[in-house]
Write a structure and sequence with these properties.
Rossmann fold; alpha/beta
């Protein structure tokens, strides 16, 4: 790699907030952004002083990009990640890695075969306080681990589920898969990081408060 790690970002919903961080990060450079929304891509490129495109394959052909940041809807993450890895780029996806385990396995296998790095954005693992908690738990400072409770009461109205690009992707099984996969995955990951690998899961979910395909309430014992 060059002196700076050069990024290309695909998806400018959550990807916009990630793209804005790159120019202010030492050792990083934003080379290109990609969105199906040409107007949005052009606006972001002008603001952040980078190139733009509406064609993901076109961005993957560029030789001045080291890492592809995948910020598309959840059900597309591994599709775009595999394409990035196959084209010779490292890849960093937002959470969740995907909504299908088989696609996650395929992306991991592709990373191993191509020798490229594949990372997933579980930002809670980078917070110093969580490192201290994990060290205390795993070092036995709190005694024997019996259980860990997680309660997430996050409010989302219909404007959240009806927005995004493509429109309403957060409300659909094929692109999002539900609140536990989208919001809850942050803390399910943290539970595993604190407590160790999951051996079994029992859970129930349902849709109670929104007119959407996916669940908006989940309870589980892991």
């Amino acid at each position: 790699m060059a002196d700076k790690v050069r990024f290309g970002i695909v998806g400018l919903g959550m990807g916009y907030s990630r793209a804005k961080l790159i120019p202010n990060t030492a050792g990083a450079e934003l080379a290109c952004v990609c969105s199906l929304d040409a107007e949005k891509a052009q606006q972001v490129a002008k603001e952040l002083n980078c190139d733009w495109t509406t064609n993901y394959l076109e961005m993957l052909m560029r030789k001045d990009i080291d890492v592809i940041g995948v910020m598309t809807p959840s059900g597309m993450h591994c599709d775009h990640a595999i394409m990035a890895l196959e084209s010779g780029h490292h890849c960093y996806t937002t959470k969740p890695m995907d909504i299908m385990v088989a696609k996650c396995d395929a992306a991991i296998a592709t990373a191993k075969r191509t020798g490229k790095i594949l990372g997933v954005d579980f930002g809670n693992r980078f917070l110093p306080i969580n490192h201290q908690v994990r060290a205390a738990l795993q070092g036995g400072k709190l005694g024997r681990l019996i259980c860990c409770d997680l309660i997430m009461k996050w409010y989302r109205d219909m404007s959240y589920y009806g927005g995004g690009s493509p429109t309403a992707w957060r409300s659909r099984l094929v692109t999002e898969r539900g609140s536990i996969a989208n919001q809850g995955v942050h803390y399910v990951d943290l539970l595993q990081w604190f407590m160790g690998p999951v051996k079994s899961v029992w859970g129930r979910s349902g849709t109670f408060n929104h007119d959407i395909e996916t669940e908006d309430q989940t309870m589980a014992i892991i």
